[in-house]
Amino acid sequence: MKVVTVIGARPQFIKAAVVSRAFQQIKDCKEIIIHTGQHYDANMSDIFFEEMSIPKPTYQLNIHESLHGAMTAKMVMGIETILIDEKPDFLLVYGDTNSTLAGSIAASKLHVPIAHVEAGLRSFNMKMPEEVNRIVTDRLSKHLFCPTETAIQNLKNEGYDNIDCNIHLTGDVMLDAALYYQKKNNSTILKTLNIAPNNYFLCTIHRAENTNEIGRLSSIINALNELNKQYKVIVPLHPRTVKYIAEYNLKTEFAIIDPVGYFDMLQLIANARMILTDSGGLQKEAFFFHKFCITLRDETEWVELVQNDCNKLVGANEEKILLATQYFLKSNFPQHLSLYGNGRAGDKIAAILNQ
Ligand code: UD1
Ligand code: UDP
User: Fold this and answer.
1) Equal fold, 2-172+341-353 vs 183-329
2) DSSP states along 63-81
3) Is 330 helix (H, G, I), strand (E, B) or coil?
4) Predicted confidence (pLDDT) per residue in 117-146, tens digit
5) Ligand 1, atom 17: nearest CA belongs to which residue?
6) What is the architecture of the domain spanning 2-172+341-353?
7) For domain 183-329, is the CATH number 3.40.50.2000?
8) Which one of the ligands is nearest to 257 CA?
9) Would the CB of 21 count as within 6 Å of ligand 1?
10) Does 300 sit in the ligand 1 pocket, CB within 6 Å?
């Protein structure tokens, strides 16, 4: 079996680490990795390849445009040429980024079967670029690897029973990653930052809907400034958000640090008092480590977390952020919930493709 994998953004490196490891266990399986270049800073890209022993990409497209159309178009052109040369059995893509969409468009034009990991997720907000990317990718895919029952149901609701494709419930590769790498974790980030377990809030912000609107971003920042009086707030900040905080001249009173690698991040999550985030991945990682999560968005693809009272959707509303935090500080985390599989999603995906 020959697979071409297209990745380009931080969470995709983490997911690809899991499935690449599973491919390596299969005899006569060859994986060729294309890195689109969507994320390019050392701490947004290289660090994951080094820490997680992800095979070095065979192709590095180095595309980092800011306009989505231009970015996607250049990626499609680069990937198309490679697919013509490599003639793989499958093209493998993850999640919902512009790199995912580009891979899917290029492969579909060449009739290369597409395998989509994290299929079926929906926010039902068509203004999110990710929603467009995942809907198109799902529709073009032959194998749809769904992390949750909700994802399967979303596809059924869209009529996928009548579409020629294969839908699989696999569990979530991010659970595989968290379980596997946390066992190997020797991060000393708590010492470096001089913070104690259960004594800080951990926050990340990067979604366009929050960063590109001064009203939303300043409301989140005000809430974090307030929370920082109660527990230290630690924010490993995406470069996009750094740029907007400076541009809007917002005053921050909490600890902003550079983006960290996966080991440091797992350590920060595992020891946090609570998580506040607009990240998709972090919402689940909070759950894996039994931490409550305040989601700084108006909707989530991971609805089972909200339904099970582990996660609250508060948008960018300062008052709601503060109220939800105080509510969770007084709550006990629900135990024994298994929402994302058994930590073997990567093996299952690799085995299905190898059939
Ligand atoms: C992208 C994905 C989003 C995912 C996120 C993971 C899309 C549409 N969005 O959003 O689904 O949650 O990755 O983090 O694909 N930048 C740098 N250095 C970098 C990377 C980005 O400075 O290494 C800055 C650039 O100014 C860039 C901006 O961040 O224009 C936004 O990057 P982009 O990849 O377009 O979007 P993300 O917000 O990272
Ligand atoms: N992450 C990381 N370092 C950071 C911020 C995030 O390693 O400084 C990890 C995080 O633990 C999760 C993944 O990156 O595994 C999520 O990426 P991101 O929030 O950028 O994207 P999303 O999941 O929202 O698509």
Assistant:
1) yes
2) ---SSHHHHHHHHHHHHHH
3) coil
4) 999 999 999 999 999 999 999 999 999 999
5) 239
6) 3-Layer(aba) Sandwich (3.40)
7) yes
8) 2
9) no
10) no
